[in-house]
Amino acid sequence: MAAGGKKRAILFTDALKLRRPTAFNVMLKPIGSVCNLNCTYCYYLEKKKLYAGRNDFKMTEELLEEFTKQYIQSNEVPVVTFTWQGGEPTLMGLDFFKKAIELQKKYAGGKRIDNAFQTNGTRLNDDWCKFFKDNNILVGISIDGAEHNHDRYRKTASGGPTFKSVMKGIELLQKHRVEFNTLSVVNDYNVHYAQETYRFLKAIGSVFMQFLPVVERFADNISDDSLKLVSNDYKDRAKLTSWSVNGRDYGKFLITIFDEWVRNDVGRYYVQIFDATLANWVGEMPGVCVYAETCGDALVMEHNGDVYSCDHFVYPEFYLGNILEKPLIEMVKSQAQFDFGIRKRSSLPRQCLRCEYLFACHGECPKHRIDLSEDGEPGLNHLCEGFKMFYKHVTPYMDFMAEELRNKRAPANVMQWIRNKENRVIKLPIPGRNDPCPCGSGKKYKNCCGRKLMNN
Fold it and tell me: Does 342 have pLDDT greater than 80?
């Protein structure tokens, strides 16, 4: 496509984005970054430094009501989802969320209201699980795999293990028949246990899985009261954390899980990146911002009403305002937020623009774009090598599943397609009577295996 044509296509895409019904998500942090755990790799625990001198991190009911009203009214879609995160949201107490449900019903205005609740699972009890079940709340459980994988970095405040507490929480969810999915952080340790992790998650009843790679940098020579884990735009010296995963290992991790999934589990278990990849393969929206062409539709609100562009960009430079001082819809539609979303595409280095897999990756999350490209440009995703490995490996399977979708057939047919290919018998030509016997005996075929066949 000529440069002018490409520019016009981009402008047209942006125009469509502006004209479509307003639909966005705000991740709610009702307890801020306060948590009962102290996970080594957590990027959010230190966000309390943004509120120095403050001891109370609990959202007030007045703020909850104001947000609920604005959020439902601003979303011009029939289904509005409230996404609760932390920190650890259960620290707010059950009464707070009972009030949240009451307010949602008050302001629903005929829309369907859904709730998604992310928790570390260690504080769940029968009362919490009954509440989730009664209100049809989808629960996300943070678990990094089997015990040795999970306890590697997911620690209590005193440095103790958490796996057994999380498993008790999962058992309670199953007892009350609460729908749950799992979120696993892929780090430098569990990345080497892909098959074990996938099979473990299936065994505990996880039908929908998210595997989120951790890539973080520590800033050098920064004061104790400043944020030490820095964004991709940080210009001074910063070094990769020891728990960050590298691209090659992450690629192998995804390929290992994909090979088991595509042969046995399509349509039975759902892995977010596999779903997003197939969606991009057929030209549909991937359903998750990191694999979309642009972003900006997933904001975050802190316990006091402060709104930031994204959960991964809670830094002063991405502050949009406070909901008590500025209407939420103004922040969502602000030039600053629009620029933030478009920048995901416009800041890609030339290496990405030339890549045959750009349509599937779109540079992934801007937070991970901390490397230099082969041309020396900044902004290359740290996991680029792994994504290329993964997309190259899955191409024939994605091509097949995409074709099935286009013909209104089930992508799960890929499993039979693979079995047919792998079980196909290859017929070798029968040697002549006087040819050397293929068994390697050194005799002529007629005097060896050929004779045996004739005698039978």
Answer: yes
Query: How many whole angstroms separate alpha carbon 378 and alpha carbon 280?
Result: 25
Dmax (CA) for the chain in angstroms is: 96
Distance of CA 127 to the CA centre of its chain: 29
Residue-level pLDDT at 16 = 46
Among left, alpha and beta (phi > 0; psi -120 to 50; other), residue 405 is alpha
Beta bridge pairs of residue 180 = 139
DSSP 281: H
Tokens of 320: 């949009």
Ramachandran assignment for 136, one of left (phi > 0), alpha (psi -120 to 50 degrees), beta (any other):
left
Contact 298, 27 (CB under 8 A): yes
Using CB atoms within 10 A of its CB, is residue 413 exposed (0-12), middle (13-18) or buried (19+)? middle
Which amino acid, one-letter code, is at 172? L
DSSP 8-class letter at 232: T
DSSP code of residue 266 = B
What contacts 306, CB < 8 A, 6 or more positions away? 319, 321, 322
Both structure tokens of 362: 């779109």
Query: Which of 311, 339, 371, 399 is labelled catalytic?
Result: 311
Distance between CA atoms of 402 and 279, rounded to whole angstroms?
8
| pLDDT band of 293, cuts 50, 70, 90 | very high
Element of type H or E holding 183: strand 180-186
The pLDDT value given to residue 9: 45
Alpha-carbon gap, residue 194 to 260, rounded angstroms: 10
**pTM of model > 0.90:** no
Neighbour tally for 158: CB within 10 Å: 6
Condensed to tens digits (0 to 9), the pLDDT of residues 92-127 reads 999 999 999 999 999 999 999 999 999 999 999 999
Tokens encoding 375 = 């041309």
Does residue 311 have an active-site annotation? yes
Residue among 286, 290, 274, 285 at smallest CA distance from 366: 290
Give the chain's end-to-end CA distance (angstroms, integer): 66
Does residue 409 sit in helix, strand or coil?
Answer: coil
Please write down the HEC assignment for all residues of 293-353: CCCCCEEEECCCCEEECCHHHCCHHHEEEECCCCCHHHHHCCHHHHHHHHHHHHCCCHHHH
Is 455's pLDDT higher than 80? no
The CA-atom distances, in angstroms, between 40 and each of 11, 149, 155, 265 are: 43, 13, 7, 32
Distance CA 133, CA 130 (A): 5
The H-or-E segment that residue 94 falls in is helix 94-107
Interstrand relation of 270-271 and 208-213 (parallel, antiparallel or unpaired)? parallel
